[in-house]
Amino acid sequence: QVQLVESGGGLVQAGGSLRLSCSASRSINAMGWFRQAPGKQRELVATFTTGGSTNYADSAKGRFTISRDNAKNTVYLQMNSLKPEDTAVYYCDAVEILGTISKVYWGQGTQVTVSS
Q1: What phi, psi does 84 have (nearest 5°)?
Q2: Within the chain, what is the greatest distance between any pair of CA atoms?
Q3: Sequence-separated contacts (24+) of 98-105 with Cβ below 8 Å
Q4: CA-closest candidate to residue 48, choices 93, 18, 78, 5
Q5: In angstroms, rounded to a whole number, what is the distance separating the alpha carbons of residues 46 and 12?
Q6: Burial of 15 by CB count in 10 Å (0-12 exposed, 13-18 middle, 19+ buried)?
Q7: Measuring CA to CA, how many Å separate 45 from each of 96, 98, 99?
Q8: What secondary structure, in 3-state letters, does 28-48 show?
Q9: What percent of the chain has pLDDT above 70?
């Protein structure tokens, strides 16, 4: 099992910045961020793959940066130039590959609200 704890959400004005943190209970390579707005499906924001590369949603490119501190088993999401459409619950995920089986873990989510 992997426990994920997110923090850093809040209310910010459009154009502002927030940094989200996700701490894992143990080391795991593939971690990332998804978000879910009311009435919408959960969508990818940014992730580290098992190989260590990064993937970003088009909506996040140029504004959001994912980073990690391996010593702390923590992944960060720096969000700049926030827009009202970025308002959502942001979830941290971690993917563990066990042979041919993948296990996905989710954090509890942290609310990000961007006011216009």
Answers
A1: -55, -30
A2: 47
A3: 105/1, 105/2, 105/3, 105/4
A4: 93
A5: 20
A6: exposed
A7: 19, 24, 26
A8: CCEEEEEEECCCCCCEEEEEE
A9: 100
Closest-CA residue to 57 (of 88, 29, 95) = 88
CA–CA distance, 103 with 95 (Å, rounded to integer): 6
pLDDT at residue 62 is higher than 90: yes
Residue 70 DSSP one-character state: G
**Residue 1, helix vs strand vs coil:** coil
Per residue in 63-107, pLDDT (tens digit) is: 999 999 999 999 999 999 999 999 999 999 999 888 888 899 999
Q: Are 104 and 95 in contact (CB under 8 A)?
A: yes
